[in-house]
Structure formats: C-alpha cells, structure tokens
Amino acid sequence: MVTITFLIINVLVFLLMPPVGSAPFEAFIRTWGVTPLDFNVTAVLTSMFVHAGFGHLFSNLLFLWIFGDNVEDRMGHGRYVVFYVLCGLAAALLQTLFAAGSQVPMVGASGAIAGVLGAYLVLFPHSRVLTFVFITFIEVPAVLLLGLWFATQLLSGLGTLAAVRPQDMGGIAFFAHAGGFIAGAALVLLFRRPERMRAEWWDHVAR
Which helix (H) or strand (E) holds 132? Predict the structure, then answer.
C-alpha cells in the first residue's frame, strides 16, 4: 500500500511540474530540491518526490516497484514509511558531507530507494531477481546484483571527488545512493518485524 502510494505521488508531482528545461522548471527544482550549501530537513522531504526528467523518474520508480513491496511486507506500513524517510535523510546528509559547498540542488527518490535496496539485500540475499542482460532475461542472485550496484555507486562517488571541486558537484548524487543503501542495510535490523520474517518459497522471487 505504501509503495504504491509513493509511486503515485511521484508520478503526480512530475505531471504537475513545469516543462523540463524551462525557466519555471529550474525555479521549481531550486524551490523544492535540497541544496547542500543551504541544507534543511524540510527540503530533503520535498526533494524526495521531485525528479529532473522522465528517465530519472522511470528508473527510480522501477527499482521501487520491484523491491519496495517485499521490504514493506517485512516491516509493515507504518514502519516502512519512517524507514523510507530516514534513508532519504541519510542519503542527503552523506551527499552534503562530501559536497558541502555545492549550490546545485538535489532531487529524486533515489537515496530513499537505495535504502530499500540495502534492506532487500539484508532480508532476501538469496532471492533471484529477473534481470535484462544484453538481449535476454536471466535470474541474478540479489546479493550479486545489489552488491555490484552499491560498489558502482561508491566508486563513482569517489571518482567525482577527484574530478571536480565540492562546490561544483552536481549531476548524479552517487554518495546519496551509497549513503541511502548503507542506512537501509543498517536500519532494516531495527524496523523489520520478527513475526513477518517467515518467508515461503514463492517470496524469494522479486516481482
């Protein structure tokens, strides 16, 4: 229920935004995004539902759709909401730590969704995720797929430190992804409900 609600909210916000690339769009991003140089918690919350383009929106929501419902099921609706928000906050904090002087606003649900991925890895490490590779679909172990994803984000983030000055960091917030993932993997140990941890065989295939 919560995962689907988040999906709908993100789509509705995107549909109500000014046209991508327009001056009103840029103003919208700066108003509702979170800027490291002027960090505040309210901006973090609003930025989690704003996306910079259709591709940005689609990729984020695809990951949320695939992994979110399983994590929500193991936590329950209320805990999952708090968990999701905390992961988004942790993601924004880590990105701000590495780009404290940046005036480039951050938007998107990817930090919070990275937390969902981290939680999924802890909860379902042996599940197999149907993944498109080259010209076919194959089932890949979650621990391999998500482990590689996290390593890619962390290494890419470290690469940006050598490429630009912190105040100029923009584009993809790799440290936000890494921070959200780490927060999710840790917080799931507190937010999961023991009575919901029994999994049947059909639960081990991500939808």
Answer: strand 128-133
